[in-house]
Amino acid sequence: MGNNYFKNKKVAIIGASGSLGCAYAQAFQQEGAQLFLLGRHVEKVQKLAQKTAAEYSLASLEIGSEESLQAAVEAIRSWSDQVDIIINATGFDVRKSLSAHSAAEIKQTLDTNLLGAVLLTKYFLPLLSDKASSTLVHTGGFADGRLAFPYYSVDVASRAGVFSFIEAMNRELRAEGRKKYITYFCPNAAATPSEAPYHPVWREMGLAISSPAEVCQALLKGIRKRRRVILMGAGTGLFAKINLLSPSLADFLLLNQYSRILKHYFAAAD
């Protein structure tokens, strides 16, 4: 697993028109991977290709549309019989009390984060070659998805669902004797335009804000090491275990303090 680990690997990135999706594309391209990029806004991906002078195969994708999913799968199959790595960089979140959520916001959060991960797995997992190095990566949040932050209730529900879905799918793959697997990746808050308005919140909570390059480095390192769960942040994994074993202790150590900060920023949305 040296410096050439990703050289000539076939990598598909879903959500490549987003800030982190574009960063992932550039990182894998620099590692020598061959890329197939998918997103709702293909013109943004085309601009990325022009900017980096890289050759990418492209396709549009609406993850809520079965027709679009099937068309994307066929487009990838025409590009390569099998894929080594698939990255799901899509995501949607709402940061306010549940009473302030609209029904449309609740539906979009669950459709994008949870239903989207399930459908992408159903349609794209068969594209992965059955090797120990082949993985489909879903982007999560809240450590293992189960750090239940207030004012993120629906988002947390969707991420926890994705984590448990991945656990079940990896057991299903093992039961069927498959070598390929699914990865849960929780990045730090990133220095992207969409996340920038919330940086003061994270700083007050004492949480790290990472550059897109740092997020990419963590993702690629985790894939190289073939981790099923990739969590950024010092102590994140330990605190996730504390929360799982004793939510009251997690409240005492950090979450009560976090709740006060999050209330200050997001309760006014009511």
UniProtKB/TrEMBL annotation:
Keywords: Oxidoreductase
PROSITE patterns: PROKAR_LIPOPROTEIN (PS51257)
Gene3D superfamilies: NAD(P)-binding Rossmann-like Domain (3.40.50.720)
CDD domains: SDR_c
SUPFAM superfamilies membership: NAD(P)-binding Rossmann-fold domains (SSF51735)
Keyword match Oxidoreductase: yes
InterPro entries assigned: NAD(P)-bd_dom_sf (IPR036291), SDR_fam (IPR002347)
The family this protein is said to belong to: Belongs to the short-chain dehydrogenases/reductases (SDR) family.
Official protein name in the record: Oxidoreductase
Organism of derivation: Streptococcus panodentis
